[in-house]
Amino acid sequence: MKKYNILSQINKNFLIAVVRGVDTEETKKIIDEIIKGGFKNIEVTYTVPNASHIIEQVRKDHGDEIILGAGTVMDCTTARIAIEKGAQYIVSPHLDTEISKICNMYSIPYLPGCGSATEIVEALKFGSDLVKLFPGRHLGPDFISDIKGPIPNVELMPSGGVNIENMREWIEKGSFAVGVGSDLTKGFTGKNYNIIKDKAEQYVNTYKKFKSG
After folding, report:
1. Is 132 among the residues known to form the active site?
2. What are phi and psi of 208, to 5 degrees?
3. Which label site among 14, 86, 202, 212 has the fewest CB atoms less than 10 Å from its CB?
4. Pairing of strands 41-45, 110-111
C-alpha cells in the first residue's frame, strides 16, 4: 500500500519539479519557491552537492505537504541513502536492476529512465510501476501512445523537454505525470527567486485549466 499511495499522489499532483542548484542554499530556496508556486511533487537530483542533506532537510521542513523524490540516482548505495534520508521515490536516467531490488525491498517506487520498448519491458519485469521516459524531448509525445498500444499496462512519465506549450499534448497522449526541469528556472540569475514561483504557478494553473476542460 505504501508504494501505491505514493504513486497515487504523484499522479494526482501530476507535475514533478526536477530540481538542480549550484549549492545547498540555492537548491533549498528554489524548492521553497516551487512549492509556493503550487508544485507538490519535488525531485532533488544527485547532481546537486549534498543532495542527501537537502532531501533530509526538505522532508523535515515540508513533511506530508509534498511527495519528495531523489533523482539522477546512479547506484543502489545512493538509492538506499536517499530512502533513509526521506526520499519517497527514486529516479534514474537509466535502468539499474540493483536499484529496483532496493526500492522494492522498501516499497519505494523506482522510476528508471527508458527510451525503448525493450528497456521498458525489462523495467516492468523488475517491478517498476512507473517508467521515466527519457530523454523526453527526443522521443516526443507520440512515443507514449506508440508504446501504450502494445503495452497498455505501462505508465510513463516524460522528463526532459516538457514545457507549458507542449504539456497538453503530453497529457493527451497518456502521461501518468510529467517531469519539469530547467524551464522552471529559466531567467533565474541567482537572486530573482520570485521568477521561479511565478513560473511554477503558470504550470499549475495551466494544468488545472486543462483538467477542468
Report:
1. yes
2. -60, -40
3. 212
4. unpaired
Query: CA 92, CA 96: separation in Å to the nearest integer?
Result: 8
**Closest among 143, 196, 139, 137 to 162, alpha carbons compared:** 137
CB 165 within 8 A of CB 191: no
* Cβ 14 vs Cβ 177: under 8 Å: yes
Per annotation, catalytic residue among 40, 132, 173, 197: 132
Q: Up-side HSE of residue 18: CA atoms within 13 Å toward CB?
A: 24
Residue 86 is predicted with a pLDDT of 98
CB atoms within 10 A of CB 182: 12
Residues 6 or more apart whose CB falls under 8 angstroms from that of 86 comprise 55, 56, 58, 59, 60, 68
Task: Single out the catalytic residue among 43, 155, 173, 197.
Answer: 43
- Which helix (H) or strand (E) segment holds residue 156: the answer is strand 156-158
Whether the pTM exceeds 0.90: the reply is yes
C-beta of residue 104 within 8 angstroms of C-beta of residue 128? no
Any catalytic annotation for residue 43? yes
User: Each residue of 87-136: pLDDT tens digit?
Assistant: 999 999 999 999 999 999 999 999 999 999 999 999 999 999 999 999 88
Q: How far apart are CA 133 and CA 111, in angstroms?
A: 9
List, for residues 46-88, the tens digit of each pLDDT value: 999 999 999 999 999 999 999 999 999 999 999 999 999 999 9
